[in-house]
Amino acid sequence: MPKQDALPKSRATLTHFDDTGRARMVDVGDKAETERVAVASGRVRMTGATVELIRTGRAAKGDVLAVAQVAAVMGAKRTADLIPMCHPLMLTRIDIVFDLRQEDVLIEATVATRGRTGVEMEALTAVATAALTIYDMVKAVDRGMSIEEIQLESKEGGRSGRWSREAEMAGNTPSDEGD
């Protein structure tokens, strides 16, 4: 096992590593339960003809967005089974929104819980699962699709308070309301 002083400084401060550099699940037992919400987004880029198939409900496998919505909910609920250091969470809300545009489908997931750890990974997993499901549902007509820009948009709750991509990109310091 590497000694603490042998670890790069950035790795030594990551919460999913112990003092010796071994991976671990973070102990959240002493954290306060707070309302926690995360929003993630992503897109599936495709041809305009494929978007039209989805829009008009003519995809051979059925209602693409209805299936993707169910998949996103299932993905969010199963995040701890997929990502090794995630805590299993009792989610209180999962909202999925799709925006069909000319050559892509935008996906946004909002996930909430009342607990001791955040739901960023659940929101990101919901988006990824929805995107993969969309790809699966229409891959027979458009294998050139790409899944892009899966990212956290915002999070609220916990000691670190609020964070938003929009505020960070604008150079603003988000409030640190340590709920």
Total strands: the figure is: 5
Strand-residue proportion: 25-35%
Helix proportion: 25-40%
Number of helices: 6
Q: What secondary-structure arrangement, pairings included, does this model have?
A:
Layout: H1 9-12, E1 34-45, H2 48-56, H3 64-77, H4 79-82, E2 91-100, E3 104-115, H5 120-138, E4 146-156, E5 163-164, H6 165-169
Antiparallel strand pairs: 1-3, 1-4, 2-3, 4-5
Helix pairs in contact: 3-5
Describe this structure in words.
- Residues 1-12 have low confidence and may be disordered.
- The protein has helices at residues 9-12, 48-56, 64-77, 79-82, 120-138, 165-169, and strands spanning 34-45, 91-100, 104-115, 146-156, 163-164.
- Helix 3 packs antiparallel against helix 5.
- With 179 residues, the protein is α+β, with helices and mostly antiparallel strands.
Structural features:
alpha+beta, five-stranded antiparallel beta sheet, elongated, disordered N terminus
Summarize the structure in short.
31% of the residues lie in helices and 26% in strands.
